Known about the structure:
- By secondary structure, this protein is of the alpha+beta class.
- It has three domains: 2-141 and 319-343, Nucleotidyltransferase, domain 5 (2-Layer Sandwich), CATH 3.30.420.40; 154-184 and 257-312, Nucleotidyltransferase, domain 5 (2-Layer Sandwich), CATH 3.30.420.40; 186-254, ATPase, substrate binding domain, subdomain 4 (Actin, Chain A, domain 4, Alpha-Beta Complex).
- The chain is 39% helix and 27% strand.
- Helix 5 (138-145) crosses helix 11, helix 6 packs across helix 7 and helix 6 (186-201) packs antiparallel against helix 8 (248-272).
Amino acid sequence: MFDFIAGLFSKDIGIDLGTANTVVYVKREGIVLSEPSVVAIQRASKEIIAVGKEAKKMIGKTPQDIQAVKPMRDGVIADFEVTKMMLRYFMSRVHGRKGMFKPRVVICVPAGVTEVERRAVVDAALQAGAREAYLIEEPLAAAIGAGLPIHEPRGNMVLDIGGGRTEVAVISLGGIVVRESIKVAGDEMDSVIINYMMKEHELVIGEQMAESIKKTIGNVDDELEETFMDVKGRDIRGGIPRVKEISSSEIREVLKPVAEKIVEAVKTVLEQTPPELSADIIDRGIIMTGGTSMLKGLDKLISKGVGVPAYLTENPLYCVALGAGKVLEELNALKRVLLSVKRTEE
């Protein structure tokens, strides 16, 4: 009876807790929040200064007494206490501090995370104010969010490319048949751009400038028209600010080796896929989700590299969170796709 009443009055929440961004879905409301997974804290007191967009603006610009932290790394918790602060902040924004009933929370995690990593996510959610914490593997959530018929006896292939990790999975009958997870995604692309600018142009740039380059002129498509961008940074030799114009073609050559690692991960999964499911994938193609899947030309590169059509889903940034939300909306019907549950009273 308590669960029934609590379910009526609490705002149950689905969370895509990503390395780069956290997206929050509220039951019966949809996507209500999408913010960078960054927290700015006072070093001495550990007091929160800012969370999300405001905290991201501070990266590389803070005084010594303030630290801008990315508590997620490679899709899992790297800093438990800061992750708990971030979850509490986001949950309070969408649920309110004065709610009579704590929310149930479904959180997306990478496929194949360890039991220790699962427990860390669950404990962080419970300590942040959840009544119950469920976990769902990101490829499954992405497939549900994309509207794929995951419970049918047919192969569905999902390629989820986020900030810290790329996950490839073949799904059939409500479960993952074959999967591959690599720590190669948007963050590595940013890193190679930073290294390239330092080595080839003797210009030191920060993470945010590298991300801007990736989103503005980043691509892996040889047929794209040449574009240019002014990059601002610090000259290595003189130590003074400098602006350098770079082209989309040179960034393409920087990003291609990273993209090829993703192609190899897809190949690995296809090689391990049972023949019956392979036939389905040829017919249905590969569904791409996640923010980094939107890199210009990446869908074409993957299609050419593996010989199977690859398509961007309708909402690549929000697909995983939408899947978590659909599980919340149909919890009894979809409960078997969840990894685990833990209640606060346990």
